[in-house]
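Subject: LysR family transcriptional regulator structure
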Amino acid sequence: MTAPDSESLRLLVLVGELGSIGAAAAELRISQPSASKRLNRLERQLGLALLERTRQGCTTTPAGEMVCGWAREVLAHVDGLMNGARALRAQQESKLRVSASMTVAEYLVPRWIGQLREALPEVHLELDVTNSAAVADAVRHGHADLGFIEAPDPPEGVSVRYVTGDRMVVIVPPEHPWTRLRRPLTPSELAATPLIVREHGSGTREKLYRALSEVGATPVAPLLELRSTTAVRNAVVAGAGPAVLSVLAAATDLAENRLVEVPVSELDLRRPLHAVWRSGLQLTGPAAALLATAMRAPG
């Protein structure tokens, strides 16, 4: 026996209450012939005569009265399920979990969030700031609805969309010997110098090492490994050593002469910034709105 669908049960209950197939059909906004076909199919499915049809209308048979009672219980549970699902969906649609790599989180995401909140002030947003590898993991495992990364290669197992471009620069304090060079630094000189770098998994570090490898240069062991872009920048300002960071992170210090950019020959330090989300899912609601905001923002 095939289980009846909830709409056929709802129609049967209405016929029993209103005493008319036509009135029940009008209540459900379907045609009377369609309602009659559904009721006939329901009787065949259950193997029971549920209605007595007369010129004056319809009444339920004793079996139909019992089925109507059971149907009301089923429909109450179905309505409870649908109301609960709607409430849960509304709660989820008002919450957005974002994971972003350090540079994007510190210098781009705050502006995007501000614009999103203007359009959707009711959205509750949670931002996790980590490195690109951890962002990809958070998205894959459903811990973040949307992620932003700066790794040179888009990770596997996620959907990816290009957002904007970025450029990394070699930075030193004003008193560093490299500021007195009359020529660009060579990739070999940069690779032979212990640098202040981010931790493994950082898109900034991955891009730097990839760029050096592409020109045949192998970096020596780092001078310092730090877990945030701000910590790297502060260490360079304090004179601890040189580093390679996004121009976004260094822009204010470069403009105010706390840091100096050192040009490097033959080294491509441009990189794309990507949005990522769980593979196979279509972004909707606040997540789709934030992605659209990011892609509209000036590069």
